[in-house]
Amino acid sequence: MSETTVSPINGENREHRKLKPLRRRPYTYIHADTHKEFQTVYEAHDRITVNLDIFWWDAITHIARRDSDGTPSCPNTSTKKKNEKPKPLESLQTPRVMPCDLKVRESRPLRFRVTPIRPLLPEHMRALVKTFCDPSIRETMLNNPGLYNAKLYVHLGELSPPDEAKSTELCRPVYFDQHLRGARKDMKIRAKQMGAALAIIHCKCGYDGAGIKFQLGLRPKYRKVVMWPTNFARCKIFNVSQNMELKLALAIAKNPTWPRPPGMLGFMSEESPLAPEGWRIWNAFKDAYLSACSDLSSTQPSLKFSPIAVIEHMSSIYNPHERWYDDLFGRERASQDLCRILRLMDGIRALSMPLSRQWSE
Question: Polar residues bias located where (predicted)?
Fold first, then answer.
């Protein structure tokens, strides 16, 4: 599965670059090599994007009314109007599948057309380069003609690597600590949006949510940066089976896109200075997911799974002191043990560096 963009033929490229993101964007096509792959990817993309639009307002009924600690987020006080209601959680932008004409359906490889994701405005990209890129590469990045079509993906479950500031990649993640530095006030809202989206994907679509990404793009009407869910090719339909909640938790826990609790899967340690923020974002995501699942389950007889069990697995799945660790598949447990050993070796190496410098002196 791959994705390409085809330019329009209406002279749009002659427009002013600053106005271009607000105009009609080039078409985006998602390709598949076989007819079976085409059917699978097309169905997943269509079902998820349609259901996100249909059930969003049902899923967020109670999310905006409660904070991550369970208290009302908009209490009635003397400084507020008596009947004031909390602002509803803003919906995501979805790259909907567009009607496929005969030429598109018969093309080789098979492909279908989706709503293009609007790139960020030039002033957004220049500000990001000046904030997060090392001075040695800023001029190169600002002069790169592809900068204004860069793809930025939200990674709330991962910290930036040490050499991230010197990376010249245009398709790159935006890590947890970078969000704290540049978009702190938006983090909690985005975590709640992710929780509501995952609830819809689980409860209404029947997919496990594996491999999903959230790309930062523009909402043209308000010139506002929003998240667009994308990359649904790896999502699989889940059925009632043994350890079903564990399998759902693994599909999410492996993806650094989703928020994670501190101390999990190579994320920040529980002793990290960023841990309080990590818990705040994780709790916002967790509470939004459980609240949305509860609201969505009220419209159908029963769910196939327990949302609480999924969250419990995600919270402690990679902690060897928890009972859930014993339920891990052998391959998963071995991979996590290896991650811990490598992390321990990195810590020992970091501690030995000052000693080696002293001996050399």
Answer: 1-10
